[in-house]
Design goal:
The chain has a domain at 2-205 and 298-357: Rossmann fold. The strands form 3 sheets. It has a 9-stranded mixed sheet with strand order 2-1-3-4-7-6-5-14-13. Strands 9-10-11-12 form a 4-stranded antiparallel sheet, with helices on one face. 41% of the residues are buried. 31% of the residues lie in helices and 16% in strands. The protein has helices at residues 12-17, 32-41, 54-59, 90-109, 131-140, 195-198, 246-250, 266-273, 287-295, 300-311, 386-398, 405-415, 420-427, 434-440, 446-455, 461-464; strands spanning 2-6, 23-26, 68-71, 115-121, 154-158, 163-170, 181-188, 200-201, 216-219, 222-225, 254-257, 260-263, 332-335, 338-343, 347-349, 355-357. It has 16 helices and 16 strands. Helix 11 (386-398) crosses helix 13 (420-427). The chain has 466 residues and is of the alpha+beta class. Strand 13 and strand 14 (338-343) form a beta hairpin.
Length: 466
């Protein structure tokens, strides 16, 4: 199967599908580090650069038309960290440009419609601009946009041009200890049935759970402690700095090693995403580049699982998702002649006693142990000093945020290794944040500071200007 990759990043799809009978005809990436990385790792596969020019280049014959096009258009427009501007954000509009690429490819292939693979954050399902409704409607070939205030985590649209199915899947059930819920959309022509790829026949046993694993262990003679059985969703700055978010407080960011505390390493971030060891370790890559590359990429085991189901030449269960099936009536709507199935439950009953699994968990969970991702050769720069631990604890108090109790104990023990006056002297070398100074001046209490931070109030300069 020939493939074109849009918004390629560090090319998780190539890693996931390399031995499944795939051949990548071209990639598309404009960011400096990923572009240079692709030229190093995949020198024989051309990088087309700007995706907005691809439709015309396919139409002219300059660029070949592949069997499958995969892409993950910029997620920042739909994620919490990206301010959720949706289609009002230029990055969000690239989602619709992706449709133009598919249409140009279909026109070139004529009677062989393109298979589509698209990944994004689950936040696109709740986007206030109805970005997902615009995307799935255009992909299906609907004349009018299907409107939903909140789209479910799984569904199917049989449109005039294409059948489109989607499902949110969580990487922590696919063999990596990282909670990473992502939306996967698969589409193709009217004789293509993406529901047989994305959905599974459910057996008689309940859906599985993530296994219990020990949080303290020894590896290569070193004592380790982690604070969760799996980490929060890896993001682009995960190992580079402290961030005031859940991962900083629940322990996802940190590993205790021989009574010291450190951030995760680039190798650990690769393993959390399912990449081969040192995949991002190219000569020009800084540590920040490696974290950004992995954090912005796809979970390789999930993409591989889906690829196997796409490339297996139809050796899958065939589901009869039919508007005449009585059990599907609660999920079915007719949008101007377009069959739409919106699955709000994890398990859906079909005719003949068949149940399908549309949850974030596959039928056969692949277990993982966070001890397996531990790097025994962490760089010294990643270890956190008593001053750093004191600052994290201080910010937790100022923000009124609960911290993982065990993480707090470890940090307090490290802080106790240095005199308080010395910690204060060193910490004053770098300027305090505006919120911290406001608390110290008595201009607001920690609860007030937390409320203001949450609401992002901008009309009180005395609290924000130093």
């Amino acid at each position: 199967m020939t493939i074109g990759s849009v918004c390629s990043g560090i090319e998780a799809a190539s890693v996931a599908w390399m031995d499944l009978g795939s051949r990548f005809l071209w990639l598309s990436e404009i960011a400096p580090f990923p572009s240079k990385f692709l030229a190093t790792r995949y020198p024989s596969t051309p990088n087309l650069g700007d995706m907005t020019a691809i439709p015309e280049r396919i139409a002219s014959g300059e660029v070949p038309a592949p069997d499958l096009i995969c892409g993950g258009t910029p997620c920042q427009a739909f994620s919490v960290t990206g301010h959720q501007k949706g289609l009002a954000d230029a990055r969000g509009q690239l989602t619709l440009k992706f449709i133009e690429i598919i249409e140009a490819n279909d026109a070139k292939r004529k009677n062989k419609p393109t298979i589509v693979f698209w990944e994004n954050v689950e936040g696109v399902l709740k986007d206030k601009t109805n970005a997902f409704g615009c995307f799935v409607s255009a992909l299906a070939g609907c004349k009018d946009v299907i409107h939903k205030d909140k789209w479910p985590n799984a569904g199917l649209v049989r449109g005039p041009l294409r059948n489109v199915a989607w499902r949110v899947l969580d990487a922590k059930f696919f063999g990596v200890p990282q909670q990473r819920k992502r939306l996967y959309v698969i589409a193709g022509g009217l004789d293509f049935h993406p529901e047989n790829i994305l959905f599974e026949r459910h057996g008689n046993t309940p859906l599985g759970n993530f296994p219990d694993v020990p949080l303290t262990f020894t590896k290569a003679g070193k004592r380790f402690e982690v604070f969760r059985a799996y980490t929060d969703c890896l993001y682009s700055a995960y190992g580079t700095k402290w961030n005031g978010n859940a991962a900083a407080y629940n322990g996802s960011l940190y590993i205790a090693e021989n009574d010291r505390l450190r951030r995760i390493t680039p190798l650990e971030s690769e393993r959390l995403m399912g990449f081969p060891d040192n995949y991002t370790d190219v000569p020009f890559a800084m540590r920040t580049n490696r974290f950004q590359g992995t954090g912005n990429s796809w979970a390789v085991p999930v993409v591989r699982w889906l690829g196997q189901r796409i490339f297996d030449n139809g050796k899958r269960s065939v589901f009869d998702i039919n508007k005449n099936t009585f059990t599907l009536l609660p999920y079915f709507t007719d949008h101007f002649g377009t069959e739409t199935y919106l699955f709000n439950d994890e398990l859906i009953g079909l005719s003949g006693g068949i149940t399908i699994n549309v949850s974030a968990r596959p039928e056969n969970i692949i277990p993982s142990n966070i001890a397996d991702i531990i790097d025994i050769d962490a760089e010294e720069e990643l270890f956190i000093s008593p001053v750093g631990c004191k600052g994290i604890l201080r910010r937790s108090i100022e923000r009124g945020t609960n911290m993982n109790p065990r993480l707090q104990t470890v940090m307090e023990r490290i802080v106790a290794q240095m005199d308080d006056d010395e910690i204060e002297r060193i910490s004053r070398i770098q300027p305090r944040g505006a919120y911290t100074l406001a608390v110290e001046r008595g201009e607001m209490t920690p609860p007030t500071r937390k409320r203001l931070a949450r609401n992002r109030i901008k009309d009180e300069p005395t609290l924000f200007d130093v």
